[in-house]
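Q: I'm teaching a short session on how sequence maps to structure, and I want students to see two examples side by side rather than one. Could you give me a first protein with its sequence written out and its structure tokens following it? Keep the formatting plain so it prints cleanly on a handout.
A: Of course. Example one:
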Amino acid sequence: MDTATYKTAVTQAFNQAAASYDRMGVEFFTPMGRRLVERVAPRPGDRVLDVGCGRGACLFPAAERVGPSGRVLGVDIAEAMVTEAREQARREGLTTVETRVMDGEHPDLPPRSYDVVTGSYSVIFFPDAPAALARYAPLLADGGRLGFTSPVFTADTFPFLPPVFTELIPRELLRNLPPEWQPAELSRRFNSWLADPADLVRTLRGAGFAEVDVADEDVTMTAASGTAWVDWSHTQGMRLLWQHLPERESGQLRDRLITALDAMRPGDGPLTIPVPVRYVTATVAR
């Protein structure tokens, strides 16, 4: 993988999506981020670092927990995401929240300056995530906690989407993805250390953490309709597939998904899809 090219593409994608990211009537990232904060449990007065903060799914729940005596820093490689989160903090009068543009794989921050580090669906996407995790241990004060989320990776499901989409998205469409997002490459990058909880524990211990806990829970993804879900999918990870599909295949997939998802709705009610999420928490080993 060409790391520079990869990071440039990721930055551009999230800068383009920032205005509507997690704001199109589909609930997923916000409840997942809030649950991660609950699990890592910042205390009043804590200093929290949120890596890949996006528009604040972890950032703002963490600010609620640490209160006026704590502080929360959100960092993201996409400047537009940082701007959106900063504007929300300003609108809400949250003077304890700060945001910065930063490459989270190489955090330029003082040692032992945080009590909690979070990263919801973010740190796992670093080109070398296990090595990056080792850079966060020195940033934590003694007894500091790390928490991040990941999909539950299995060999027989479509990566990064709820299991139901394995049957809905024809595998042959994946040939249109860039090489670094082909299934074999995704398996090498992610399944090799995220799929087996024992591998995760070994990785975290090697990065300087102890008391590693791996827990899988469903997050209920909610959308008003199949159309709402498909429109939303253009603002998150699946946008890579949409961007690389020929026009005819893109239209066919859109129609196929909308029809299938609307068939899952109870009458005129919203679409609800259980999404398995892996929550990983650990304590710095000192």
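Q: Perfect. Now a second example for contrast.
A: Example two:
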Amino acid sequence: MAERVALVVGAADLGEAVAHRLAADGCEPILCDPGDPGPAAARIAAARGGAEPATVRAAPADPDEFRTAVAAGLRAAGHDAVDVLVYTLLPADALLPRPLATLTEAEWHRLAEDPVRHGLTVLQVAHELLAPRRGRFVLVVPAIALEGAADLVPAATAAETLRALAKSAARRWAVDGITVNIVTPDVFAYGAEHLRGTDVDRGEAVLPGPSTARDVADAVSLLLAPAAARLTGTTLIVDGGALMTP
């Protein structure tokens, strides 16, 4: 993993944990977020006692603007391509319960359709950045993509659609030497403690303790290790053994 360049899109929570782990693995992480990724970069630097990772402030809402901003950020960091791209971006309120019958059109667009468009934008840009180095892409979406969730229909819809896009990319990009894999943590790895006792909290995990952002980062690291070179189109479920699928 040493000397590899990793672009992490989504600097909050899981993204920060992933960037921290990749830095520990010897990668050079670059944090990209629609908001300000600076605080996350500062925390990573403080924890590791080194320089702050490079940051890029870019929103994937507009493909051309995102492509331009990312390219400029990489050039500023001395790069024109990356070895790794990890996508963790999720609307901040995606895991707040909303009964399906009361969803407004605006909520559906923002929580179900916009995340898919944003993920598609990142996938399109990712191919350009990863192809020169035959790199690796990892998508992180909540495990409700696999099982559905009452009152979290927009998030589940977006997550499963993105997972399908990632698997399609895995098939298409294999000829270019790019692998694409998916990590699906349970909602508690996102810090969604307000969902305890709801439809997504079924008490089925066989391993003790809750899933954490660090667990997700460790799973991402596994998929990026040299020994995982033959893995593509794979979904790793980080939920303590609750689903055990397929």
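Q: What should students look for in example two?
A: Point them to this: The chain has seven helices and seven strands. Also worth mentioning: Strands lie at 5-9, 28-33, 54-57, 84-87, 136-140, 179-185, 235-238.
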